[in-house]
Amino acid sequence: MVTDIRKRLVEILNTLVQDRGVAGVSVTLNINQKPEYVWHPPLLPDEPVFLVYSITKIFTTAVLLLLQEEELLTLEDPLAVWFPKIGQADCITLRQLLNHTAGIPDYGSLRAYHDAVRSFPSIPWTFEQFAAVTFDQGLCFAPGTSWAYSNPGYLLLKRIIEAVTGSSYRDLIFDRIIRPLGLRQTFVPESVEELSSLTPATSCALALDGTPRDVRHYYHPGWVSHGVIASTPSEIVLFLNSLFSNLLLPQHCVEEMARLVPVALPTIEGLATPKPTQPWVRPSYGLGLMGDPASAWGLMLGHNGGGPGYSASAFHFPELGGVSICAMCAMEEGLKAEDIVFAVLYQVR
């Protein structure tokens, strides 16, 4: 059966890439927590590295839950402990920041943000500038009464775990996840120069006139307010397998992460309004996890990520016996990583 799956995957991936004219694509599929297939274009000698964008939120959540296990904080702690000046901060919990029910506004739809990225791609906003256009303007809704995707919510969580530990976000991710799991190509870039090892990708969002620019030479990762991880599909799959096998967190923590609430579409990153031909049935969100309890493959848990130059998609399917898959693309228009994930899954089912 595995040989048949591999053969079908080769055919579908080659077709997807050739039809779309894409070179920077990489896919990893694990079945029963064993690496059954790793694919990237034959011209690339090694598995390429990509920015995973909002897949980073799973890492942030894992670190926060580890700190809860150490009794350094709890998910029910109010935001006011660290940010008392934010409106209704005493009513916002860390749990609500994690599952996007806190009412913290996002900047993804703000023209000012995208204009700033185009004008100064190598000079990101400060914390204060992100705050000024989002939560300093007030909340979208009363905490706990609705759902809206919020990158600034995770910016606040990043600041909180740094304050609690006295360590940088980069060091926390390395010490709590990267080093214990032996992830050799995963890291948190903090400068333009540190993007040099990534697979090449261009973006039209880094210049006022829309001229394509090499993301590795112009884009500062600080424009992702909550921090961003660079990695490979194989290492992201290893991370997911470790997470859902309770090798990184206790079972009760993983169960908390997978406690899903319905989402308000189409605001979740990388997820469009469902159509009959699409695999999303009941789109939901847990703690740092996109999910669907009623997908074509049963419960699915993971995340999409997208931004200048790259898209990424990684999901785990416990009801398929522990299947995990991650796809990454070095392109921002047309073929998306999620398209590849679902195309592969339809072959596995």
UniProtKB/TrEMBL annotation:
Residues 13-339 form the Beta-lactamase-related domain. Coiled coil: none annotated. Pfam families: Beta-lactamase. InterPro entries: AmpC-like (IPR050491), Beta-lactam-related (IPR001466), Beta-lactam/transpept-like (IPR012338). SUPFAM superfamilies: beta-lactamase/transpeptidase-like. PANTHER family: D-ALANYL-D-ALANINE CARBOXYPEPTIDASE (PTHR46825:SF7), D-ALANYL-D-ALANINE-CARBOXYPEPTIDASE/ENDOPEPTIDASE AMPH (PTHR46825). This is Beta-lactamase family protein.
